[in-house]
Amino acid sequence: MSLLVGFDVSASGLRAQRLRMDVIAENLANAQTTRGTEGGPYRRKQVVFAAAPLQGPGLPWGGLMRQLQGVRVLAVVEDQTPLEAVYDPGHPDAGPDGFVLMPNVNPATELVDMISATRSYEANAAVIEALKKMAARALDIAR
């Protein structure tokens, strides 16, 4: 198997997890935003991943090479969990009944997701580092 294929697989994982971390950071930054760009409270966003066939030179050889897949982002979707109504009649976005609709962002959930994304990112970075070392050793052997 070509080392370049391993780089492609891990690089796709790095890109996907970086986007996931960006979305989590956006969620945390808007955890108290009651009036977003669409007018209502902010809704938590989630990243949807899918397996993506690898493309590029050297991939058509062998059955295993055709089965290797990376990661691609299908979409960034809004979480449809119900918004929480909080009684705060002094809030500028409070309705006539004194309730304010708050975002459906739970900071604890976001932090757990951030740890998961970070660990996945680190794992892919470790694979790339191992592949670099393997390539360097192969070059040393060839000398």
Descriptive report:
It is elongated, with a radius of gyration of 22 Å. The longest helix is centred in the last third of the chain and has 36 residues, at 107-142. The relative contact order is 0.22. It contains three helices and four strands, in the order αβαβββα. The strands form two sheets. The chain has a two-stranded antiparallel ribbon with strand order 1-2. A two-stranded antiparallel sheet has the order 3-4. The chain has helices at residues 3-29, 63-67, 107-142; strands at residues 45-53, 69-78, 84-87, 99-102. With 143 residues, it is α+β, with helices and mostly antiparallel strands. The protein has one domain.
Explain the layout of strands and helices.
Blueprint: H1 3-29, E1 45-53, H2 63-67, E2 69-78, E3 84-87, E4 99-102, H3 107-142
Antiparallel strand pairs: 1-2, 3-4
Give a quick summary of the entry.
With 143 residues, this protein is of the alpha+beta class. It has helices spanning 3-29, 63-67, 107-142, and strands spanning 45-53, 69-78, 84-87, 99-102.
